[in-house]
Amino acid sequence: MIRSPAMWVATASLLLLAFAPGCSKRDPAALESKYRHVVLIVLDTLHAAHLGAYDDPHGASPAIDAFARDGLVFDRAFSNHTWTLPSTASLMTGRIQERHRVVVDAQALGKSLTTLAESFGSAGYDTAAFVQMVYASQAFGLDRGFERFVYSGAREEGRSATLGQVMERVATFDGASRPTFTYVHLRRPHSPYDPAPDLRARFCRECPLADGRHDDKLRFADGLKATKLPPLQQAHAVHLYRGNLATIDREIAPLLAALAARDDALVVLTSDHGEEFGEHGLYGHGVGLTAAAIDVPLIWRGTGIRAGVDSTPASTVDVMPSLLAACAIDAPPGAEFDGISLLPWIRDPAANPRKGPIPLSARHPDDLGLPLVGVVLGDLKAILLPDDRAILVDRGRDRAERQDVSGLHRDAFARMLRYARDLRAGGRGLAANLDDASRLDDDHLADLKALGYVR
Ligand SMILES: [Zn+2]
Ligand SMILES: [Zn+2]
Asked: In what order do the strands lie in the sheet with 314-315?
């Protein structure tokens, strides 16, 4: 049976309580010593299907694939949202867009929400963030709870230093007097598509557009949104994206290797949304809810985490309750999560705690209209459009979401649509809420320009 959103949240909270350290028979001290260092890595705009660990054949991600090999790969993981700001707010609070209420870039995270960093900080962890994306920055309140928040922007001069700074921090782990929590949010593979030249060449072999005559036009996903690209340009845009992924994979390889060599680190690698390349007529991200737009990697690695691939649906709103449970940290007083702790399941596939649906949202093109919403339940995914049209796809049989199977699952579809309409009603008008306003300074605006969002 499908629960109403309120019932589902209540159930999720109960599930979380069941696995919280106060109720657990596990020894919290033992857990904490296992996961003395927690690292959350977000590669912006990474549609999971481009990774070898998710069966992509092009070899753009050897370091991530090697890292994933001894970890647990959730191969059906969904971001809560399809653009950076609401998606990062979800990751940092365990709440869906309809509850954290950060929908458009005039808004910042409300003070009533407790963040992941605040929770780790209250538990005595040394917290630090290294962020290259403006929509994950202090301009939107997303630095809350970090003792150290290094925002280096999207521009090359700041960006090139980020991974060195993270490696310096990892090098201090052995002598650290406190446990640590580190959040790393890297710009690539987000556009501009500006791969390292050798990697651009590798993923653009035998391509008639290898001479680069269309590169400027294709560099920014946002500029492609309204375009219907000819097939060669469409394929070349994917080459550039793949090169961008390979570039960040190469840059991040030493960090992943250093973390994988530790038996006291818990590492989660994920993304905030995907990227569309015309699979369903759209480009970029933000307004679609297709697999390309919302499927993200979710890879867990650490002592005690089983290795393998798990196809049960998971969400980025599960990350916060799961990390807190893994480190035996009590949820903040009064906190509610829209996700569940995946911890029992991460250790034992028979212990799947997922009972309810996973809610998804995308941006309405004019922001103030009804949001586009989706619901995942088991193999099925329903999408409800603002004009009330809806489709159902079977992700178990049709990973690319090409076929509407609503006629084959009428009862389930009707129940999922009821849930989706409740969700959509909860999102109505949120974009007009300006109680907590964002603060963009000149540097942030320059970074938006570097990302192609301001011309
Ligand atoms: Zn993003
Ligand atoms: Zn090409």
From this structure: 295-296, 77-78, 314-315
Q: Helix, strand, or coil here: 248?
A: helix
Give distance in angstroms: CA of 243 to centre of ligand 2. 10
79 CA to centre of ligand 2 in angstroms: 28
Torsion, Cα 188 56 72 244, to 10 degrees, reads -10
The list of the chain residues with pLDDT below 70 reads 1-34, 154-159, 225-226, 367, 455
* 72-74 and 308-310 strand pairing: parallel
- Residue 270's beta-bridge partner residues? 42, 298
* Token pair of 339 as six digits: 């996700």
pTM of the model: 0.92
Predicted pLDDT at 224: 76
User: Ligand 2 centre and the CA of 239: distance in Å?
Assistant: 5
**What ligand has the least distance to the C-alpha of 209?**
2
CA–CA dist 306, 203 (Å, integer)? 33
Q: Which of 120, 182, 113 is nearest to 141 (CA)?
A: 113
Tokens describing residue 155: 């521009």
Number of neighbouring beta carbons within 10 Å of residue 66: 17
Query: Quick count: other Cβ atoms within 10 Å of Cβ 111?
Result: 10
The Cα 309–Cα 326 span in angstroms is 19
Q: What whole-number distance in Å separates Cα of residue 277 and Cα of residue 45? A: 12
Taking a 5 Å cut-off on Cβ, the residues next to ion ligand 1 are 44-45, 84, 272
Instruction: Give the Å distance between the CA of 319 and the centre of ligand 1.
Output: 17
The closest of 5, 104, 108 to 337, measured between CA atoms, is: 5
Q: Residue 242: in which H helix or E strand, if any?
A: helix 231-260
Instruction: Label residue 145 left, alpha or beta by phi (over 0 means left) and psi (-120 to 50 means alpha).
Output: left
Question: Residues with Cβ within 5 Å of ion ligand 2?
Answer: 204, 207, 209, 236, 239
Separation CA 267–CA 248 (nearest Å): 17
Torsional class of 308: left (φ above 0), alpha (ψ -120 to 50), beta (otherwise): left
User: Cα angle at 409 between 407 and 410, to 5 degrees?
Assistant: 70
